[in-house]
Amino acid sequence: MAHFQELAKQQKTVEGALALSAMPRLHEALQALGVTDAAALDGIQVHYRLQGLPSRYFGEVSLPMLALSLQTTLPLVCQRCFEPMPESLEMTFEFALCDEPPEALLEDETVDWLESTDESSLEVLVEDELLMALPISVMHEEACTQLQQSAGEKPNPFAVLKQLKLDK
User: What is the pTM (predicted TM-score) of this model?
Assistant: First the structure.
């Protein structure tokens, strides 16, 4: 976190890309969502930009700020038709750096907080944000074309009852 504190206070910017191999929990989560294509998993690159922002007041407390931008494409698989469904993600987050967040920070839904510890790393921060962005259920927004073709018109099983009622 000392690195994050220094970056925020000096308002510097760090940019780069992380491979999926640097994020084992994300790799495991993608496999749990049905992504089995090893080449697709190996090719994932997460482009990031971590930038120090001017300090901001939350109540009477001034806190150093960071902005994190992420851009990647995840090779997800539709759970309905099992076809590839690449998901492009472009996300931006703002963080206030502090040990104990003031009440005003907790009330601000646009800013998250990072606890001041020496164990934090950029890789862990990026991985955490991507894990939270993963969908719970991966499905095409529109009906899957393969399923549409196989689902034809089926007769209504209650049509016979309607006919019995009309015969009385």
Answer: 0.76
| Distant-in-sequence, close-in-space partners of 71: CB < 8 Å, separation ≥ 6 | 46, 47, 48, 89, 90, 91
Give 96-115 as a DSSP string. Answer: EEESS--HHHHH-TT-EEEE
Model pLDDT for residues 109-158, shown as the tens digit of each residue: 888 888 766 567 889 999 999 999 988 888 887 777 655 445 556 677 77
Contact by Cβ (8 Å): 9, 64: yes
Domain ranges across the chain: 2-167
How far, CA to CA in Å, does 75 sit from each of 27, 41, 63? Answer: 11, 7, 37
The Cα-based distances of 125 to 4, 71, 85 in angstroms read 11, 14, 25
Whether 127 and 25 have beta carbons less than 8 Å apart is answered as yes
In whole angstroms, give the CA distance from residue 79 to residue 68: 30
